[in-house]
Task: structure prediction
Amino acid sequence: MDAVLNEWASLLVRWVHVIAGIAWIGSSFYFMHLDAALRETPDIPKGKGGEAWEVHGGGFYQVRKFLIAPAALPAELIWHKWQAYSTWISGFFLLVWIYYANADLYLIDPAVRDIGPGAAAAIGIGALGLGWIVYDRLCHSPLARNEVHLSAVVFAFIVAAAWLFQQVFSGRGALMHVGALMATIMTGNVFLNIIPNQKKVVAALIAGKEPDPEFGRQAKARSRHNNYLTLPVLFLMMSGHYPLTFASPYAWVMVGFVLVAGASVRHFYNERHAGRGDKWWSWGLAAACVAAAVLLSALPARFQRDADSAATPVHVPEAVAEIITGRCAMCHAAEPAWLGFATAPKGVVLDSPRTIAQQADAIRVHAVLTNAMPPNNVTSMTVEERRSLAAWLQSR
Ligand code: HEC
Result:
């Protein structure tokens, strides 16, 4: 029963996390689009806001933005902040539930670094806090006077963090922490910068004073950073299910490519919505980055295949079945013997020659092309055994 509850808790929190994320990212996209689409209106002085007409759900919306005090400010303002907070809180809960509570399956790979679960969790949480501080300091440094310089340094910082995480955690744990670091920066932007600055602006407007434009400028810059980070963060959150990304020794380089690809797709839409034309080159750049990541993910596979061809080919399915039974079936069985699993993980059953043959392609991806399975090699599968699997797969 424990395993059933465990699985459900993970599913339900993931559900909440995805819903909150959709709400947050949806409103972020909406406001970026709205801001870009604002046009001048006679009622608002030039440069102090604008107006957009929208149609949705059978009605027309006339939305106006004021950077100065409007004639009357209603008592009730709608704030957009809980989408961000609930995304981060549910995400942090998942990080603890999946990666810190099951550190030996998901976070610690003894072949990378043999650390205890407590130390691994402390390093993970510490890195998220430290990452925010470094980013925030960079935004307050003289570097921030130039958006391009700041972006370049933040980009280098995130790629360097990815490399560092790969020196400490399993591939999967490393990419998840890069995603969590970026998501923490985004939430920190909302919680510690955008909302406090907005509060100051609102207070000034209500007092009939001209708000310091610096507050608005900062909040806008941070929400622009968030907007450019959204697509790469989503990729990293999904990458844990795709060993060709996380199990690659070059995963940290892929993080760089994904950052550029995601940001350039956002750039296309930001420019288009602002009426500055369609910058089709952004799609070209994004496609080139994705292609580079795909090629990079195949590199270790190619090295491994070279090594395989040198090994004596083993055409013995019985031997293959023996390897799978010995290394995989304690988890991947209809009734797993491994403590904590009620059913075969991901429904992948590998307990008979027939099911093994059915899963041949998946075995190739997860145990031959990559060493994603067994997780962190908990069942001590040897390189020889992987070679035998490779030879069998090649001879089919
Ligand atoms: C300690 C338990 C354990 C062992 C041993 C194990 N696996 Fe897994 N396997 C898992 C878990 C947990 C998942 C689900 C991972 C996830 O949530 O993405 C999984 C998922 C999979 C998947 C589906 C992956 C996906 O994302 O679709 C395949 C295929 C697989 N394992 C193959 C193997 C093979 C082949 C072996 C032996 C070489 C093996 N596993 C050994 C626990 C194990």
